[in-house]
Amino acid sequence: MCGILAVLGCSDSSQAKRVRVLELSRRLKHRGPDWSGLHQYGDNYLAHQRLAIVDPASGDQPLFNEDKTVVVTVNGEIYNHEELRKQLPNHTFRTGSDCDVIAHLYEEHGENFVDMLDGIFSFVLLDTRDNSFIVARDAIGVTSLYIGWGLDGSVWISSELKGLNDDCEHFESFPPGHLYSSKERAFRRWYNPPWFSEAIPSAPYDPLALRHAFEKAVVKRLMTDVPFGVLLSGGLDSSLVAAVTARYLAGTNAAKQWGTKLHSFCVGLEGAPDLKAAKEVADYIGTVHHEFHYTVQDGIDAIEDVIYHIETYDVTTIRASIPMFLMSRKIKSLGVKWVISGEGSDEIFGGYLYFHKAPNKEEFHQETCRKIKALHKYDCLRANKSTFAWGLEARVPFLDKDFIRVAMNIDPEYKMIKKEEGRIEKWALRRAFDDEEHPYLPKHILYRQKEQFSDGVGYGWIDGLKAHAEKHVTDRMMLNAANIFPFNTPTTKEAYHYRMIFERFFPQNSARLSVPGGPSVACSTAKAVEWDAAWSNNLDPSGRAALGVHASAYGNQVKAVEPEKIIPKMEVSPLGVAI
């Protein structure tokens, strides 16, 4: 993994331009502290800042084909690179890097090879034989990527906004699952799964198939030549990631290099719900657990740094990014270079508490599709940039292409929340891992109510952020909000405060347009706000805004969600990787 920056067709091959590209590349140095490089071919520049995880000794970039006519700079992890190498018997590889296959696949298949890659990636490939180039981003947008255009006709590519915002006339987020070709001067979608059309699937629910798909997604991500760990909040998603990792670590190459003891990490305010649950899970699955505490003031002090790094003014993203940012610094100080995390499950299974109000399975499924399509603007952005601020990589098995295919092909009737039948949010996932003979997790953890990360680190966290914003944004300022910020006008003092900071770092119109907006309750899309008329008067991204659902909803207006009914015994699954 690394930070990439490319300037293509800029009509300037001078030393001054090279110096400028190097200067901009250094803005991404936090993403890759292990190595930096710049390759120039005429008026094309490909730069990178490397975080070395696979083949740290020889995998420095850029990467080339045999005669160096094809040049690649890439931020990614290609989990099936060994299989792909076997399909390229007539090619000579210069390194053991998993990304070394990209240039050779291009030689064999032209621009149509991207769907062959199983992993997360953003790359720029320059073909010096005809001076053409392609740019591609992974299916869901786990890796961050932006594209910009200069007045001189140049195309700019950067892992972060700060690499191009000062030099481009217009820039935007590079769409996930797309490829940009210089020959066509246009984007085209390379990732075309059935769920993307939002058609309602009808496959019956198979809990073992779902379990096996997730186990394989986790195990394939244990590809490493450096130390790693797992983020463990004590919620369902991170606990399943940790439990599966701990169960299958011993049989991997990672264990041969770094041992079978898995390290887990959690962050929260003193007394936070997550800390207690995470410790219990860690003891249960046998990890070496690291618990980090922070105060509300620690978080407030980090607000500006976090907004600079994550490059958004979205309230819920900032709320959750701050503790993740603080934790990542601690993790990196321990010598860990990547972590495995639980993002994506709530979008796939309808895990946010507002899904309790989905009127039918059709709207439930369509909302999950909308949420997955928008992940690159929210949770993927947070997970990628909050960790990479300290040179730490996050891997997310729930967003594995094969796992998504299996999970999104299930008839959404099985995902619907039906409390009268003992089915709470993410019932289909919980049921798949409810194994009486060889349990993955304690039963009450497996059926713990959903907590959004910004709530789970401590309910006082969000309240403290709101109180801080009250001190910096006056009622008079809010009266003028629509005039000052006509696009995505902030409707709360907290949002106004974050917006002011963002605009100071990224004042361009393209920057403000890169951030999503619209009404939301408990992380819903604007469309789902229509599910409950009461929500329109209580728009807040916290899970506690789901009035009538969350056990600790604002105002303590409701009772806790009923406990899950006892689930029938399931047979033990075989080792996931052997399926």
UniProtKB/TrEMBL annotation:
EC number(s): the record gives 6.3.5.4
Assigned keywords, A-Z: Amino-acid biosynthesis, Asparagine biosynthesis, ATP-binding, Glutamine amidotransferase, Ligase, Nucleotide-binding
GO BP annotations of the record are: asparagine biosynthetic process; response to stress
A Pfam family annotated for this UniProt entry? GATase_7
Pathway(s) the chain acts in = Amino-acid biosynthesis; L-asparagine biosynthesis; L-asparagine from L-aspartate (L-Gln route): step 1/1
Q: Origin, by domain of life?
A: Eukaryota
Q: Please give the catalytic activity noted in the UniProt record.
A: L-aspartate + L-glutamine + ATP + H2O = L-asparagine + L-glutamate + AMP + diphosphate + H(+)
GO MF, one term, reads: asparagine synthase (glutamine-hydrolyzing) activity
The UniProt record gives the binding positions of ATP as 231, 267, 341-342
* Residue numbers annotated as active site: 2 (for gatase activity)
Annotated binding of L-glutamine, by residue: 98
Listed InterPro entries: Asn_synth_AEB, Asn_synthase, Asn_Synthetase, AsnB_N, GATase_2_dom, Ntn_hydrolases_N, Rossmann-like_a/b/a_fold
Site for Important for beta-aspartyl-AMP intermediate formation, residues = 343
Q: Which residues form the Glutamine amidotransferase type-2 domain?
A: 2-185
Protein name (database record) = Asparagine synthetase [glutamine-hydrolyzing]
Source organism per entry reads: Glycine max
